[in-house]
Predict the structure.
Amino acid sequence: ANLPEAPSSAPNVLLIVWDTVRAESMSLYGYERQTTPYLEDLAKEGTVFRNAIATASWTLPSHASLFTGRYHHETLTSYYKPLDATYPTLAEDLATHGYITGGFVANTEYCCAERGIARGFVHYEDYVASIGELERSSSLIRSLSRQSFVRLLFGYRDVLGRKSAPRIGNDFLRWVDHIPNGRSFFAFLNYYDAHQPYIAPAEFDDMFGPTDRLVTYISRYSCGVPCSSDDTPTDEIESMRNAYDGSIAYLDSNLKWLFGELKRRNLLDRTLVILVADHGEEFAGHSTIGHGKDLYIQSIRVPLILRLPGSVPRDVVVQEPITLRDMPATVIDLLSLPDEGLFPGRSLRSHWLEPGGNTPKSLVPALSELSYAPWEPNSAPVSKGDMRSLVTGDMHYIRSGDGTEEVYDLRTDPAEHNDLIRTPRGAEAVAQAKRILEQMR
């Protein structure tokens, strides 16, 4: 009630984050399995970014960039440090312009209010009052639930207190239905269904192949994942990929239902829809399973779709690499709100052709970062120190904490199997990356 009036006819904003969903495993991005048939249709109604790069390969720093437009070295979020009030958030700014703000998150580990992500939201739903959440909040029960013998005894695979996609969607719609007529909203939905341990409903669970070996893997590693795949049998890795792909298909199906509900309420075409992921996932492509261990492209290349009839062009595909750091500036631009210099970066509008026939602006390097994680196994690159990664055009430069450097050509080597560091082209890419990083520093 104390919010100012929103601009007349201001579009709503719906930011949907599919936690842990990599672009490589989506049929929208050329994956051979039909994991995202609905998104393929939806993409024709908006603009798809084929090379969207997350600023980090795990949840908190990536979400912090989505909301502040700042890189990880600016927010300095970590496993022990939440997002502080140094920089304004998108939710805070939109609230000053009269938007009602609401957040609905399933990742209650790193998207909860205690992590600073809720700042600026008038309404925020993270933890739920449930037996699962009560158990998760107990150190003793949480510790016991991670023991393999306990999981085998009870046959339990899932994360305690996990909120499903339908729960997130219904909570959001219930909130929307109570918003006063004419009032614009900004909603943030975080979905956790494709996160480990990749458990989808029965019809999706084995959609792309057997997942029976996943039970063995989960019972051994208790909902976590080992850093190295060296001790993980191939059939277990394949079960994980099958289950992961099924979980993405489940998210796609649920999105179709959610958007059907928004259409029924005459809200969809009056809403700027942003569908994105915070980071990707690895399945032994570089002897690593999971995320947050390194900065290979499988962990940082994510989906990004924008849709707003009349403002975002239809059926456009942007090939140039972009950074998710530009998201707040893009939202402010597309809503035609005054640019008050709160969010660095620039609007992604520059990457599609305007009616006047303007050409896209020059490419912006996409920086990703990881902070030193000494608790990780020695096989994890991040266990050796801070990491940096830079995508410029087709080239991807990675610097590990011990100074090791790698360079890959993403156009000819999308899986990053051929390190060009000892070639003339690789040396040139390294020199360019170092110049750019120095300028950014």
Notes: Residues 354-361 have pLDDT under 50 and may be disordered. The CA atoms of residues 100 and 185 lie 5 Å apart. The chain has 14 helices and 17 strands. The first strand starts at residue 12 and ends at 18.
